[in-house]
Design goal:
140 residues, mainly beta, globular
């Protein structure tokens, strides 16, 4: 399946359930929403429960801004800094973000209109793990 940045952006709005595995650290489950802010921006908010291998379990949330910019889709932090710039090839795209000495390589794949996979390979002087998330659209 070939997809453009515009088609990926158009496929995201709505409610999604997610399950996440953080290798060697824990997992999370919850619900995410992509809500339109304008014709070229979506507000992403997830709320869920984080369970760490240390025994901790508690609430967690994350927010991003998804901005359509011509042929690219930018995933930005709430303050506007770009985390990843996606140029979809087929139904997937990959980009790298530097965070201090750490590298976050993000891979985004729309399996179908109701299933989205996002994974980050995190590497640095003191980090080496993968964050793998599967999103499934909530009907209705």
């Amino acid at each position: 399946m070939t997809i453009t940045a515009q088609q990926l952006f158009a496929a995201l709005p709505g409610r999604w359930r997610f399950s996440r595995v953080i290798t060697g650290q824990g997992s999370a489950i919850g619900e995410a929403r992509f809500e339109p802010v304008s014709g070229t921006e979506l507000h992403y908010r997830e709320d869920g429960t984080l369970t760490l291998d240390t025994g901790y379990t508690g609430p967690a949330y994350r927010e991003y801004r998804y901005q359509l910019d011509g042929e690219v889709l930018r995933i930005c932090f709430p303050d506007g800094r770009t985390m990843h710039t996606l140029r979809p090839d087929a139904a997937e795209a990959t980009d790298t973000h530097l965070c201090g000495a750490d590298v976050y390589t993000g891979h985004y794949r729309l399996a179908d209109q109701d299933t989205l996979h996002i994974s980050y390979q995190v590497a640095g002087p003191h980090k080496d793990f993968t964050i793998a998330t599967v999103f499934r659209r909530v009907s209705g």
